[in-house]
């Protein structure tokens, strides 16, 4: 059941929907209009933990929040002799509402806190990801960009997960060119895990795909070339966005080469893109074996492996352009079997490529390091008895 309601105690912007699952939690957030979605699901960005901390903080500050705001406004004055402590800023970040007064106060407190800690860092708490979650939660992309671009706060937001949250916030607000501008800033900033953070690269190609212009294609191909030159291997989702963009820009040969380099070819996005590229290249006979593979491996007890109706129709047009009656007959027979076996879905390629990324899978050591370095509020895995889920397992179907 979907609810247009307050998200964890905070009013949602117009057009948002939440989907409730068992236990009172929310599986994902999505836009109601035009099928717009987050690329990374809220849980993957740590928003579920952030919302829990908001609830806890608001409970602690019942009848005290306004006095606290007044005090923090005084303390954040550059001429004040008082200090902004870690706990002060943490509390304000979790109390802030989507008002200009609150957002301006948070910015002033961040600036003051960052200035007083330039020489000596008193604590190990990393604020960048948490503040960016606040902007994301309140759906404030302009304020998030302003803070990110503020020279006084450059080191404040220099964490990989911060970049990811900001770019996903821009993605869900259709600010695709702003995403590319942010990517250029990220490339110039030095950080310990390399010049091209994997999730940031995914979001960059997602922005190029959404823009779908000759200029974005040219930019995407330049980024792709740069990645290859430094030995970076793009993740599958980055490859599929780049290949999808190439298809849309009538460069099917480029798309085919890109997806041919993916190690596992049985993901739903990969096989759909491959069939679409072969259809555009006028090689439908090479696409039929891919369709037959699904029929040959159909197991009733497992989820159906599928093709998009859009892709099947594209292939049908390509087959129809041939004079090979045997090929036409073979395609018709395969298509009939696919439909009878419910292997064709109404999802188009855009929907398939933009399916939300549910979570980032890490081992326990990586989880602990990520929580320390990025002050992550992601779901904890301490005491977990079940094995970690295989990444992308649902994408096989």
TrEMBL record:
One of its GO terms (cellular component) is mitochondrion. Transmembrane segments: none annotated. GO terms for biological process: mitochondrion organization; regulation of mRNA processing. InterPro entries: PTCD2 (IPR034629). GO terms for molecular function: RNA binding. PANTHER family: PENTATRICOPEPTIDE REPEAT-CONTAINING PROTEIN 2, MITOCHONDRIAL (PTHR14700). This is Pentatricopeptide repeat-containing protein 2, mitochondrial. The lineage of its organism: Eukaryota, Metazoa, Ecdysozoa, Arthropoda, Hexapoda.
């Amino acid at each position: 059941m979907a609810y247009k309601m307050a998200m964890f105690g905070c009013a949602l912007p117009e057009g948002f929907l939440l989907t409730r699952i068992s236990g009172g939690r929310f599986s994902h957030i999505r836009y109601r209009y035009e099928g717009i979605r987050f690329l990374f699901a809220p849980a993957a960005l740590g928003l579920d933990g952030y919302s829990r901390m908001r609830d806890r903080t608001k409970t602690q500050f019942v009848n005290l929040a306004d006095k606290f705001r007044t005090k923090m406004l005084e303390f954040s004055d550059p001429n004040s002799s008082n200090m902004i402590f870690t706990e002060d800023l943490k509390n304000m970040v979790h109390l802030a509402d989507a008002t200009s007064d609150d957002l301006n106060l948070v910015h002033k407190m961040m600036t003051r806190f960052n200035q007083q800690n330039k020489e000596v860092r008193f604590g190990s708490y990393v604020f960048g990801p948490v503040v960016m979650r606040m902007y994301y939660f309140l759906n404030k992309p302009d304020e998030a960009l302003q803070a990110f671009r503020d020279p006084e706060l450059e080191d404040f937001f220099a964490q990989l997960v911060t970049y990811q949250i900001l770019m996903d916030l821009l993605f869900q607000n259709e600010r695709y060119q702003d995403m590319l501008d942010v990517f250029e800033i990220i490339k110039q900033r030095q950080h310990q895990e390399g010049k091209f953070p994997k999730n940031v690269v995914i979001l960059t190609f997602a922005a190029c795909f959404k823009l779908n212009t000759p200029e974005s294609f040219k930019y995407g191909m330049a980024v792709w070339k740069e990645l290859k030159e430094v030995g970076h291997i793009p993740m599958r989702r980055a490859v599929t966005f780049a290949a999808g963009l190439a298809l849309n820009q009538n460069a099917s040969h480029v798309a085919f080469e890109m997806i041919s380099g993916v190690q596992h070819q049985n993901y739903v996005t990969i096989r759909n893109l491959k069939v679409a590229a072969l259809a555009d290249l006028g090689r439908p006979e090479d696409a039929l074996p891919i369709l037959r593979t699904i029929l040959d491996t159909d197991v009733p007890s497992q989820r159906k492996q599928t093709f998009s109706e859009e892709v099947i129709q594209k292939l049908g047009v390509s087959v129809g352009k041939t004079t090979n009656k045997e090929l036409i007959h073979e395609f018709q027979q395969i298509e009939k079997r696919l439909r009878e076996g419910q292997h064709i879905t109404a999802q188009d390629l855009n929907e398939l490529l933009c399916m939300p990324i549910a979570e980032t899978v890490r081992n326990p050591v990586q989880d602990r390091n990520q929580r320390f370095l990025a002050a992550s509020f992601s779901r904890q895995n301490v005491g977990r008895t079940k094995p970690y889920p295989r990444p992308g397992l649902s994408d096989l179907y």
